[in-house]
Amino acid sequence: MHIPDGFLDAKAWMTTTAVGAAAVAYSLNKTKLGISSSKQVPMVALIGSFVFAAQMINFPIAGATSGHFLGGALTSILFGPWIGTIVMAAVLIIQALVFQDGGITVLGANILCTGFIGCFVGYGVYKAGMKLFGGKGRIFITFIASWLSIVAASAGVALLLAWSGTFELGLALKAMVGWHMLIGIGEGVITTLVAGYLLERSKAQVKGAALQ
Amino acid sequence: MSEFQVTARKGKWIVLLVITLVTAGLLSPWASPHPDGLERVAKDHGFIDQAGAVHEWAPIPDYEVAGIPWTAVRVGLAGVIGAGIMAAVLWVSIKGLSSRRGKANAQSHGDGEGRL
Question: Does the first or last residue of chain B, that is N or C, have fewer Cβ atoms within 10 Å of its Cβ?
């Protein structure tokens, strides 16, 4: 779902560039305070690398259309939404600069939609779900959180297309959300598998429970 | 409520590294060539022609390294190079952020364990 140059008008790309830059700057600041140990550095770097690689794999869905993994929900469930936003911004910047995938004027828009929105929706739904169900049904919650992160990101893109006058709002939402409800299934499967593999019950919590 | 944390087991991260390299290097040439969701919508609703690139100087446009006769190698190599660049850029920038924080903490007397 990389917006190319030309889909957004000047007011939309200029606004999203400014807001996107602010979101990245704020996330960098939050990340500075949030890195809990230097052991996390190679992990975050490797997850970014994985997200990049997985995004290359377009999978066929229906009607001669494909989708691919985005990764905002995965990175945020693993490392929190601020580091998630930084990872997604880095992926999008390198894709645009090195591989001409996604535009330059719309980098801010892409960072806001697939990065910021994807990360915060994915993380928010995951955290809320875990709290609501007391940590049960983690696989299901992870799936729904990552599926919703894609649907929300596609709705964000639809809003920007409509704001730019490229496309009528109702139609844009219906078309974008419709396709990404299918693509989101792939996102859900990959996120559930990788997060399930890399997350384990916290030792501190186990100890804490023993002390109570 | 049970809390989960990211595993510290090296073996699992090595498996992820191998999956990443295999995905970028070997699977990427066989990705679906069909348009993705946004491209499909743009085609169906007649605004795909508005797409244009403002820069023509990307070193590896469209995930294909130039000058190699085999498509699978062009794409696979692009994938491995991209995965390497990603890891390097994130490593350096996150490391830079966390070490700056370390210094700031040494000066003030630290604000305890930074939790996400």
Answer: N
Q: ipTM exceeding 0.95?
A: no
CB contact under 8 A, A45 and B88: yes
**Among candidates B20, B90, B15, B42, which has minimal Cα distance to A4?**
B42
Across the strands, what pairs with A200? B5
Interval B22-66: pLDDT, tens: 999 999 999 999 999 999 999 999 999 999 877 778 999 999 999
Q: What is the pLDDT of residues A86-111, one digit of tens each?
A: 999 999 999 999 999 999 999 999 99
Answer yes or no: are the C-beta atoms of A186 and A67 closer than 8 Å: yes
Pick the CATH number of A10-199 from 1.10.3720.10, 1.10.760.10, 1.10.1760.20, 3.40.50.720: 1.10.1760.20
Contacting residues of A for B38, CB less than 8 Å apart: 1-3, 154, 157, 176
Tokens of B58: 């990307």
Given A46, A64, A105, which is nearest B87 (Cβ)? A46
